[in-house]
Amino acid sequence: MNIEQKETDVLILGSGGAGLFAALHAYKGNPDLKITVAVKGLLGKCGCTRMVQGGYNVALNQGDSVERHFMDTINGGYWIPNQELAWRLVETAPKRVLELENEVGCFFDRVEDGSLHGKAFAGQTFDRTIHKGDLTGIEIINRLAEQVWAKPIDRLEDHRAIEIIPSEDGKRISGILMLNIRTGKPLFVKAKAVMLGTGGGPTMYRYHTPSGEKSCDGLAMALRAGLNLRDMEMVQFHPTGLLAGEGTRLTGTVLEEGLRGAGGHLLNGKGKRFMHDYDERGERATRDVVSRSIYREMCKGHTTESGGVHISMGHLGPDNVRQKFKGMVSRCKDVGADLAGGLVEVVPTAHYMMGGVEVSVDCETALPGLFCAGEDAGGVHGGNRLGGNGVANSTVYGGIAGDVMAEWVGREGSFANPDQSAIDAALNFIETPFRAEAADLTDLRYRLLDKMWDDAGIIRTEEGLERAYTDVIALREELMQTGIGNTTKEYNQTWHDWLNLHSQISVSLAIIKSAQTRKNSRGAHFRDDYPEKGDLDTSTYVRVWQEGDDVAVTEIPVEFTRVKPGQTLIPEEIEQKTGASL
Amino acid sequence: MENNQKKITVSVWRGGEDGNFENFQVPFVEDQTILDLLTHVQRTIDNSLSYRFACRVGMCGSCAMRVNGKPRWTCRTLVSTVVQNDELKLEPLSNLPVVKDLVVDMEPFFEKWQEAKGRFEPSDSPVTEFVPIKPDDKQRQKADEAIECINCGCCYAACDVVESNPAYLGPAALNRAWSLINDAKDFANPERLKAVSGDGGCQNCHTNSQCVARCPLQLNPTRSIAGLKKAVSLATLKGEI
Predict the structure, then answer these.
(1) CA of A216 to nearest chain B CA: how many angstroms apart?
(2) Between 20 and 30 A from A72 (CA), which of A19, A306, A564, B239?
(3) Which CATH number fits domain A239-348: 3.30.1120.10, 3.90.700.10, 3.30.470.20, 3.20.20.70?
(4) What count of CB pairs under 8 Å joins A to B?
């Protein structure tokens, strides 16, 4: 092999909550292991855990229970979650939060008696969302990154993962082909165990919340490696993204849920409140309902100048709004809008992917040696993720993956020689934009984002999804013919924009095919041609995988391993139901 | 509409430690940030331009650079607030090695964060309960005042002591040390006080307060460093360090 090589016992892709926890736990499990964290930007600075505003769901207080947290998660997920994964999440969360406070060094907001404050979050029957102001993610990631820096854990920053490389015999993982963004040179990292924790991030929609570098690389690699993904039709839209035109990257970023909770009004282009036309809860309805309602208004043409709706807070008193939502007011001011006293244009924005790689409760994938945690993994949330379950998921399962990998490497880990043909093919592939004739990449990107928004977005139909599939396949072909000119490879963002687009297209196809397969409407997935949620007892989840240039899908019955629709695990509710009070 | 036609001249650093400025004419767009402007240059004028960013909303601290000589986040700095005579000058952050164009290597910054023991040290024996700390706890309030730093490096780049003394730990690392000294759950003292009182330690600060002036989050590292100086003196008097 004529490219640079490196060996490490454990390689972790990503430095969000999953990646950093995996590194710390693998180290704790076996400090003699060589552990490496590779990340597309700087450690702890990119990734989505950092962006968490709301908080962390955990059953800590009297009156709450892991059973209650579990039932909220299952109900919230419309009975589609893998119940074993959901159970392990809620069961481990209290331990993980204690670890965050007392070993990692986080500090979460307290109430008068000095215990942790749990706030109310939509879709939950108990106020269990612990937080650090509205910057919970920053506190968690900063503290985790400090711990990782302090330990003998290798960092490959500004390194992009290109391909999962199997062993020569294809029976296990050999390592990851990477690209050093700074030098533009490839690097093969041979590893005994690898964890995929690059995060999802539905950035293939016109309006989206995740960081600019997110492009579903992990899921795209998993598809190419032949792994099964699940629940890919489930893309969560946040109802109030900032709408400030195409000229600014601030468009799509989240204006927090609390604005509606505090009593903010949504007004259509005619200046009229409309939420009560759709739901009796008005603006305080759940994310999916509000997003769909705004989208309906947009489809009717009742839009503001830039094509969205307005959020209005002024009736709550501008000074009050300024004080309560300082960060949000300042963000709006950056785009010339007055949130405290005026109107701000907002639009639903793609936020989170419930779907991901099919994994076991120990984060194992179908490829021995490859583990997966965080938003790259699917099954925990099913049809919808509760606010506050995202950071719980990444930190709980990142830690589990670290524990499991440390033990697995000791038991079964060995270096395997890579499938050279897979490396050669990937190296050849990443050169594509330097061979093809230069063309307008930005325009192609906008066409993908518009296509996904229009035909595979908040409200879907068979016709639209079919059109989306054909058109996105065509965009993929066009991308392969789109070059970026004869330019440097060193820290070349345009090259990475090209590679990002390729990943986004692969995952878009998985989303579209899965959405075509689900012929009912649940959680984040809404079909105008199949608006009913369907029979819960025969719930299925959609599995998708890549076959050649196409994606294949099938529906798998959900196994109700702990609780069936109509039942509950919450002790006091069981008592009520059975009348058993003895 | 007139604004849409107006152009400004942006002078951008190109190359590594050695390099030169290159001028770009870009349209002035109301409500665009520096990051948007750089994106415009990269997407439509010169696709080899390098600049770092991630979150795009002031949460990750990846995108800082010098704008007309002063360190700023590019994602939250409106062009209209910094443009002078229709001109802008963009350079990589000072006091850090340049990778390419506007991208710096932040390694020395994070190494110093560790040298200052800028990390939580848990108790040797596992703590199995949440430590009850009241919201109005004075010590916790001091920790909280310094805690929201997102390590963007603006203060480090603005600090003249860092510039003249490469060993100086710098405002961000010392600010973090101060928040930890006020963390009732932390067990690193007196080692941390030793770490911040050596040759590159807190005594170097001469309260020029450029860190305060340049912190995009309005934190006050100078105050934190003053706190450290007092704590170090006290610990020295008591013979603890």
Answers:
(1) 14
(2) A19
(3) 3.90.700.10
(4) 171
